[in-house]
UniProtKB/TrEMBL annotation:
SUPFAM superfamilies: P-loop containing nucleoside triphosphate hydrolases (SSF52540). PANTHER family: POLYPHOSPHATE:AMP PHOSPHOTRANSFERASE, POLYPHOSPHATE:AMP PHOSPHOTRANSFERASE-RELATED. This is Polyphosphate kinase 2 family protein. Keywords: Kinase, Transferase.
Amino acid sequence: MKNEFKSLIIQGDKKFSIKNTKTDYTGGYNKEKAKDALVNSKIEVNHLQEKLYAANSHSLLIIFQAMDAAGKDSAIEHVMSGLNPQGCQVFSFKTPTSEEYEHDFLWRHYKALPERGRIGIHNRSHYENVLVCKVHPEYIMSENLPGYEEVDKINKDFWKQRYQSIRNFEEHLTANGTVILKFFLNVSKEEQKQRFLERIDDPTKNWKFSSGDIKERALWDDYMKAYEEAINETATKDSPWHIIPADKKWFARLAISSIIEDKLKSLDLKFPILGEDEQGKLIETKTVLLGE
């Protein structure tokens, strides 16, 4: 992996600090250079996806977490546009349904995991349960958990257990062939403000804006603290976090695509080789076809 992207990885051997990360980092790229590099990376990822599908030994789970207007949707649109839709699944998680609340918090996410050979993209994920729920612990009440009938009972031990559940979940997935890439699109508060204003001023983007976004923006510091803690508690060697500077969308897209490309290459995927009997059948079939 190129040095400009290696610095974005948090895998448990170092602590992540929101204050010490640059949201406008561009790794020496300019907009045009990044766009050209993204095109080449997408072509390579497309070839690797074909190998992933053919080998049918691994699946790839890509997780996007970010504040509102950080660019999750556009990143998915631009980075994944070169993939074969037959081998790709995208899930956007909203507020849990009544059925989902009747199960543990990981249940609905487990159901959405990609099959072997496929790429699964989770726009928001099981991490919402230690992010938005950390900022709004009252949401936990809807889970009807024994021993937590009041918000005041949701303490440090509760969150410690929830982080442990996530680590165990991801360790289990990794051991069974699911490769996990976790991306935090790190946008600045000022850049979010500008993007909100664009959504308000542009009639074609009004639908993207919600008054609730402003209420959550007022809790910015609480969210930054929640992200910092969640990332530090769940970043491991096998399931690291990638902190993507998101003020420049063109660099964020390149960084994401390059990291996906590098991870797929590291799997050393190969097309299956047929046995002697199957190869013999291919030759027989070819002879029949040529003789028509």
